[in-house]
């Protein structure tokens, strides 16, 4: 697919041969991401400038070769997988630009910057970059932008998209355009910024972003609320949110998550309960002290068994440890972890938990549920062994039912992981034929040769199945 | 343009003939909006259901007749003007649906609901709908959605788009699709919701919206800060925002606005100063009390002459009165008011004020500046008399220079009013040829017949001039 002539043209535009990878030993590292499936690219390039990206895209157009942008490969939906071979653009080296403009309260970043570094840099100016995907210490901002990453703070602060003011992108034809700018308000024409963020690299390549920062809250307060009945937990969430208080995080762990953690590392969690909610308040110290007591009262009023309030940062860390241990705890049980992010309206949380319990029994699978309860973004995680074909078949059926249940309850296939290769067969179920058609028209109008991350978002002939099992 | 046969088809699908307006006396009311220019439609329809809208659009497709959606006509950019005649869809009667779902903290609304009614309904549940355009008591939510309306609270709470979770829209072909849903997090395919909001009715017609509500802040605190030098005012804004405090509003008035108000109704404003900033803090009562003192200190440190702090809601209202009187005060001087909303990065506020003073002198125009300083969304207002052709020529030149200055300073043509008919000639200046081309591709892919609000956003042969003077 990648001809000698094409490679020569590329060599003339990439300044260092070290950033042109053609050896199979190198290419193999780019065949995977945090999801399933393995697809070997023909070529990996590591651009360090917008001009290089523009040149590469123009070359790819000439030879009609697919391009797959990639950050650090933490995607849980197959976002960077080169399903049709071609060129992987590895942006992980391009992390040089991370400028904080204190007066405009923005950060200007190159695509390879590690997400957590942005918040760290902002902190020095009394500012905050709120989006906090769990992979923030590993993932690149470019990947976060492509997938519109979420995180626990989504409840109060929204998601990646809510903090993107402007972008520089390279179009599928290799043109360089700028969208948005440095202002919160901008209604000049269509909002290409928010269209590109979350379009999973199918409409263009992000080469720079201007991110909005906000004043950093002065203090935080953590509390753990224990429930004998998960339905009460659901009611507690609603009651807190309609009492005038907006916590920065509200994370839920179901009984199976709690048991898994206590099995893995006994930290004193009560295993005879139905659910735990971890709540973080942030803001002015006097306000959160008062709000903490209000939240405690609201939770006890709706039937919480107990409320534990952290007294200092050390005891707060101890409470959060329960949530942090869930993932390592469950993967110890079985090697294959399927992490879903079907998201439902907040009022449907109790119903969703009930339905997930039924799915667990019906398909005889190991299912634990935890996640961002405040915004309905649960993470049903199935643990399995991918060598067990019979089990994986049941897992596939269970995942399908989780998706259809989320949609039936007025929710969505994906809250924060993206569609990628994994969820393409379900797109029409959520969007309907006409809705999907309008998205396809945009893709075709922008990328008529279909060279930008093909095989993602849209159902196509190659990936009409749930890619759960590695080849 | 509207044939007998077409009209008969429309009569068969609109349930009441009262909602089909064909008399010239009626049509004339739909020729105008809050901006300039006057264009008579051929027909006005007042739909009350999605099915009616879908049927009308299908009919319009058959006869290739333009459709112009309209709320209450408060647009300052020409959004609803029927520049090519055809059908105006008047949504002002369709205000029946305004449902608050307390558990999901959302409002579900039909397009004709008055914006301020949404916040009023939310308040009963301890919730808030933050977007607060100045026209909120008159404008419809449908118009706000089409234009992505802003308002003073944009600084802390963002704009209309930030509160739209899902939409029902009728496509340019008359198909009914749903975008997004009821969840904060949704990354299933392209973000059509945020694309449609702000697309000024050129990509489809919004027939229902699901809006996010947030917990209502428990208290507010207003203060007025007086500056001898507007540059200090600019520094004060930055200093406050990097001190860990995010006010809900930060409104600035320049010397000319202050003088105009005192001329109109003497309320005791100091007229020997360069600028006033009005600040509103909201949140927990203890927090804002403390923050108020911090803001006072920060402002005095950077050179404020005086800080006035409201002691109760009555004195707060008195402070805000200054800002509310600006518009009535300036229109008394001359009958024609040109309200611009060029927006610049916050750090460029002092420079923008300097440049606006120069423009005022250069073109010998009456220019006052006030607006949402916290987010750089200034409102340079020119007052003139449209019967004075020579003056209007100078106004047109001054407006052109305001636009180019805003773009030169890294800002945008429009922060919250939209492009409409008024700013189409300047689109390429801000977006560049390739950026504008990518927007056009989307328009053409979705609306190949160009029947959805034609003559807006994109420069075309008919409106290559600033439509400042009525015919």
Q: From the structure provided, what is the oligomeric state, counting identical versus distinct chains?
A: homodimer
The DSSP helix count of chain A reads 15
Largest sheet of chain A: 7 strands, antiparallel
- What Rg of chain A do the Cα atoms give? 23 Å
CATH class of the largest domain in chain A: Alpha Beta
Binned, the helix content of chain A reads 25-40%
Q: Please tell me the overall pLDDT of chain A.
A: 93
Describe the structure.
Two copies of one chain form a homodimer. Chain A is α+β, with helices and mostly antiparallel strands and 471 residues long. Chain A has four domains: 4-90, Uridine Diphospho-n-acetylenolpyruvylglucosamine Reductase, domain 2 (2-Layer Sandwich), CATH 3.30.43; 98-215, Uridine Diphospho-n-acetylenolpyruvylglucosamine Reductase, domain 3 (2-Layer Sandwich); 219-327, Alpha-Beta Plaits (2-Layer Sandwich); 334-408, Alpha-Beta Plaits (2-Layer Sandwich). Helix content of chain A is 35%, strand content 20%. The first copy, chain A, has 15 helices and 18 strands. Chain A has helices at 4-13, 24-27, 50-63, 115-123, 141-147, 154-157, 192-196, 230-241, 255-264, 285-301, 313-324, 326-333, 349-362, 389-408, 427-446, and strands spanning 20-21, 43-45, 67-70, 87-90, 98-101, 106-109, 127-128, 164-170, 176-180, 205-212, 214-215, 219-227, 249-254, 275-283, 306-309, 336-339, 366-372, 377-384. In chain A, strands 15-12-14-13-17-18-16 form a seven-stranded antiparallel sheet, with helices on both faces. The first copy, chain A, has a five-stranded antiparallel sheet with strand order 5-6-10-8-9. In chain A, strand 17 (366-372) and strand 18 form a beta hairpin. In chain A, helix 8 (230-241) crosses helix 10, helix 9 (255-264) crosses helix 12 and helix 13 packs antiparallel against helix 14. The longest helix of chain A is centred in the last third of the chain and has 20 residues, at 389-408. The first copy, chain A, is globular, with a radius of gyration of 23 Å. At the A-B interface, strand 9, helix 7, strand 11, helix 10 and helix 15 of A face strand 9, helix 7, strand 11, helix 10 and helix 15 of B. Chains A, B: Its cofactor is FAD. Chains A, B: Residues 36-216 form the FAD-binding PCMH-type domain. Chains A, B: Belongs to the FAD-binding oxidoreductase/transferase type 4 family.
